[in-house]
Amino acid sequence: MAASSYAMASTMTTRSRLNHFGFPALYIPTMRTTNVNLRVRSMAEEEQKQQPIESTIPVAPPKPTPQPAPTRSPKVSTKFGDVLGFSGAAPERINGRLAMIGFVAAIAVELSNGEDVFTQISNGGIPWFLGTSVLLSFASLIPLFQGVSVESKSKRIMSSYAELWNGRFAMLGLVALAFTEFLKGGTLL
Which stretches are tagged as biased composition: Pro residues (predicted)? Predict the structure, then answer.
């Protein structure tokens, strides 16, 4: 009788409880926490614990790997189309060098004589421009046709990359100087 009344009382108490949805539940399990120590091990730890089996076969020491011979930089193409092509080494460098000299010369003559760029060209500047252009072009092309790359002669401060950017700025500066003097109708300074 006591067992049946205990079973009846336990079912009555569980029916009065509500589950997490708000409906009456017949059985709600309770979780009892106990101190359970779980240990997670990786397979790498197990492999390290295993002792390697020593073999009786003699093993030769590894041979030292030979150091590769120092490689020379690839030879630069000396073909006319490669040197003077659209993406070749010469066109932008030569134009940049000419622009650097032209910009400095135009500013120097403007400061000394008070003449703008167009006056300098019309007062005998064309032969000077052509002579300088031919001389600098040949001086720039001779090493390129001999296979010497510009990057091989590059130093820290005077690098080929800096020369390209200086030439680009000089080209922009020369065009800006001429355009400004044309709009102003006289010298810049």
Answer: 59-71
For residues 108-131, b (16+ Cβ closer than 10 Å) or e, as one string?
A: ebbeeeebbbebbeeeebeeebee
Tell me the pLDDT band of 96, cut-offs 50, 70 and 90. very high
pLDDT digits (tens, 9 = 90+) for 120-131: 888 888 898 899
**32, β-bridge pairs:** none
CB atoms within 10 A of CB 150: 18
pLDDT digits (tens, 9 = 90+) for 12-48: 444 455 556 665 555 555 555 566 666 666 666 556 6
Rounded distance between C-alpha atoms, residue 139 and residue 131, angstroms: 12
- Residue 105 tokens, joined: 């010369």
